[in-house]
Amino acid sequence: MNRVVIAAVGGFGGTAPSLVDKAQALYSGDVEKWLTTTANPWISVACALGAISVFFVIGAAIALIYREQQLQKALLLGIGAPALIMAAAQGSSVNPKPIEIQPSASLFSIVGAAYAQDGDRSLPPRVELKVNPGWTQGECQTCDIKFLSGDGQIISSEPLSASPAPGAVNVPLGTETIVLSGANANSAAIDVRSLGAKLPQTQGPVTLDVNVNRSYWNDLSRSFGAKAVQPYDFSVDVAR
User: Among 76, 138, 142, 178, whose Cα sits 20 to 30 Å from the Cα of 118?
Assistant: First the structure.
């Protein structure tokens, strides 16, 4: 059998798992979510085509390496490795990502006051969380904020309403980590204990502005089968 034909059949087999995944994403509405939430949908499409091309090369290479002469077996060989790659990617979990605090922008705000204590700066025992309704309205049906203790236990969890005026949420005593999730974004963790060095040097109100930013690395990860990955990542800024 002609090597070009064998390579083409193996390559098609390599793309098959990815094409099935893309069809499922189209049916479930995932494609619409990824393409309509960015100003540059062509980058998302390029990531998908790039992944399909890589799977084609892998499938073709395996069929040629094994010197398969039967088209059916070449197809099955081509399917094998890409299917394993996508299965591994789908099985991987996405843990809340620790995020670095930067100076300033804004979608919702954690508002409190900073105090000096023996030369160290820390957040007060109670902090208010205020949410900009422009983000939650219509976009954040499943958004929530979890407040964790030092041992990782959930102290409380607050859903973010999609109403025009969601109001403030109190950060409970003992909170050491705040986990943000929703808004088509990967979950992110804010370490409250590490905020001291990031706070302004003057006493008074402190605002942490939280944004979601599109990362096309997420598009690439999703194209290789990581279904748990979302289009956006959270970022947090200290308002100056």
Answer: 178
State residue 213 phi and psi, 5-degree precision.
-125, 135
Q: Phi and psi at residue 109, in whole multiples of 5°?
A: -130, 140
User: What are the extents of the domains in the chain?
Assistant: 3-91, 97-238
- Using a CB cutoff of 8 Å and minimum separation of 24, what contacts does 3-9 make? 3/64, 5/71, 6/63, 6/64, 6/68, 6/69, 6/71, 6/74, 7/60, 7/63, 7/64, 8/60, 9/63, 9/71, 9/74, 9/75, 9/78
Beta bridge partners of 154: 148
Q: Does residue 105 sit in helix, strand or coil?
A: coil
Q: Are 164 and 181 in contact (CB under 8 A)?
A: no
Per residue in 150-197, pLDDT tens?
A: 888 999 887 765 555 545 666 777 888 888 887 688 888 888 776 655
